[in-house]
Amino acid sequence: MVSRMFRMETGVDKERLALLRSRLRETNVAASPALRALRGTPDDDEVPLGLWALTEEGELAGGLAAHTWARWLHVDFLWVDERVRGAGLGSRLLGEAERVARVERGCLNSRVETWDFQAPGFYRGQGYELVCVIPDYPEGVKEFTLTKRLLG
Fold first, then answer.
1. pTM assigned to the model
2. What is the structure's pLDDT at 3?
3. Binning pLDDT at 50, 70 and 90, where does residue 1 land?
4. What's the longest Cα–Cα distance across the chain?
């Protein structure tokens, strides 16, 4: 093996980041028949999904930000104002996101990450199953990954 010297740099570089993503994607597609089959299909597009619950005055009472990719719904953020928590708004937001993902986008599954002080119990109550716990992310906090099969 030939020993080589490399110069290391730090910093944000949008062009290099785009190249890095492109090269990683090419490597992954070459290595995975599933990703190869997905490439170039509508399911390969990452499509944003946003839902907003507004008060009569037009103020944000809750919302959900997600995206769909590879027939999965990825719930990125779900928040409900503490003044209206417990009224079922979170369940309605999540249920509508799952409906849109399943019916309009053909998703088969959903996933979410949440911290131990946030809502793992809420997601379990909505039919999500725990698949991963990462301790100390950040230190002193556990992060949970939960998934759900979206049935028609």
1. 0.88
2. 72
3. low
4. 69
Tell me how crowded residue 19 is: count the other CB atoms within 10 A of its CB. Answer: 11
Q: How far is CA 87 from CA 53, 83, 92, 112, 116, in A?
A: 12, 10, 10, 21, 22
Name residue, tokens 């027939």.
Answer: 71
Pick the more confident residue, 2 or 14. 14
Contacts of 124 (CB under 8 A, 6+ apart): 130, 146
- Yes or no: say if 112 and 146 are a contact pair by the CB < 8 Å rule: yes
Could you write out the DSSP letters of every residue in 47-72?
A: EEEEEEEE-TTS-EEEEEEEEEETTE
103-118 burial: b if 16+ Cβ within 10 Å, else e = eebebebbbbbbeeeb
pLDDT-derived band at 152, boundaries 50, 70, 90:
low
Q: Which residues pair with 60 in a beta bridge?
A: 54
78 alpha carbon, distance to own chain's centre: 11
